[in-house]
Amino acid sequence: MKQTLTALACAGLLTLSRFGAMAQPIALWLTNPNGADLFKKQPTALTFQSASATGPVIELDPAQTYQSMDGFGYTLTGGSAMLLQKMDAHQRAAILKELFATDGNNIGVSFLRISIGASDLDDRTFSYNDLPAGQTDPELTKFSLAPDKPWLIPVLKQILAINPAITIMGSPWSPPAWMKTNGETKGGSLKPEFYAVYAQYFVKYIQSMKREGIRIDAITIQNEPLHPGNNPSLLMLPEQQAAFIKNNLGPAFKAVGITTRILLYDHNADRIDYPISILNDPEAKQYVDGSAFHLYGGKVEALTEVHNAHPDKHIYFTEQWIGAPGNMKGDMNWHVRNLIIGATRNWSRTVLEWNLAADPKQQPHTIGGCTGCLGALTIDGSAITRNPAYYIVATASKFVRPGSVRVASSMPDKLPNVAFRTPKGEHVLIVLNEEAVTQSFSVRFKGKTLTASLPANSAGTFVW
Question: Secretion signal: which residues (predicted)?
Answer without folding.
Answer: 1-23
